[in-house]
Design goal:
The chain is an alpha/beta fold. The relative contact order is 0.09. The structure holds adenosine monophosphate (AMP).
Length: 505
Amino acid sequence: MNLAVWVERAGAAYSDAPALGWGSRVHRTYAEMADRAARLAGGLKDLGLAPGARIALFAKNHPAYVEAMVAIWRAGMAAVPINNKLHRDEVAYILEASSAALVFTTPDLAETAGAAAASGVHLIDLEGEGYEALIADAAPARLAETGPDELAWLFFTSGTTGRPKGAMLSHRNLMAMTTAYLADVAPVAPGDACLHAAPMSHGSGLYILPHLAHAGVNVTPESGGFSPSEIVDLLKAWPGAAMFAAPTMVNRLVRWEGEIPQSALENLKAIIYGGAPMYVEDAQAALARLGPRLVQIYGQGESPMTITCLSRAEIADRAHPRAAQRLGSAGRPYVNVEVRVVDRDDRPVGVGESGEIVCRGDSVMLGYLDNPEATAETLRGGWLHTGDVGAFDADGYLTLMDRSKDLIISGGTNIYPREVEEVLLTHTGVEECSVIGRRDPDWGEIVVAYIVGAVDQGALDAHCLEHMARFKRPKVYVFVDDLPKSNYGKILKTELRKLDEGRSA
Ligand code: AMP
């Protein structure tokens, strides 16, 4: 089965229903999108590209991003969405590694795309005449006969160290992700919106799929990105809305000083957060402002968006005796994924014990592109080794610990940054924080807290003394205007450690 079948079906059954939204307007109906995607698939073939070709998307969020992705699948080709904040050399690396034959881009990125692409690679501006001509001049292509294990999406991992690796996601993998979303995250009815304020090259783009499967509307904000006021305007216009947001985006919306009218909240079905830890304090504040509309997901490119999920009902159940503990967890395994925590020898550990999180199921990638060693290591024994450390509690909820490289060892004792961060954030003056270790001749490492907010060191120290063991509290506080973050809104601890090295030297 080919993912693009959903658009063909919706084009027939829901021909007049909106398929693509741009700002508050309907941009294309399902009949229009089905027709355009079929023609664009024909246009790709007319360029001499064959099934199996890899087509890159290096573009800002755009309604045509969705259309192009559907056309790529319809033609039996594979999409290579690229983080649009990458440097030209990084883009060049991905284009070469994936053997991309064509790059869809937008005017803002055309120059970088042009510089990154080797000669002979087609460059097509999603807003340009060439794109429209490709659609207008081609005959519609039939839906390609695509096997379930054929490549659909080459997902390049963020790769904070070394070259990014291309996780190969098949049609089956993305179908499993879609089914898991519809079962455990949020149902979608025709006309329900997905607001793409986070990059389409990553989590938000993956959530295009459940919305195609059930004839929802994929809506691109006019800015192509995230701003609280724009989101509120979109919510006024689009009912049944779901939105994927990094925790930092949720926090910005929650702390935004403007008004979120009840009518907008009523249109908001789910804010799905994940990709990085959400602190309990922040989740509680989000619940208070947005109501019972939050869902948490834990996944990674290698099992896209699909390992565990903390449902809307579980997050909203504040009366539960273990509500705070649950809010601090990443939920329970999705309906179609097996999840275990294992020791160094891949043996499952007991309840409450921590180890590496592994999972298996149809959402798990085929492997890494052209990297059999990394594939064998990561998928050994038939389980995806996530590299994340976690522990299950007796109720089956999985809590993620800090990655081992983030763990601070001070005076021989392990200190988990997240624990310190959770406490710091309960101080009302702290907006954001990140805790790292700094090398120290006496202690091995000391705890350093980077703080964004209006608060002084004395107050924070007193707050920490009241709420945590003395040895865990930061020895150094650094007050900053902002923290280094990725395009996907994750705080970059590796970056922060580098900055800190410079500062302490
Ligand atoms: P990526 O492959 O770029 O999506 O990054 C995936 C990584 O983000 C995971 O391996 C985790 O380390 C982290 N991550 C994803 N979801 C969560 C979550 N809900 N809570 C904490 N960390 C998360």
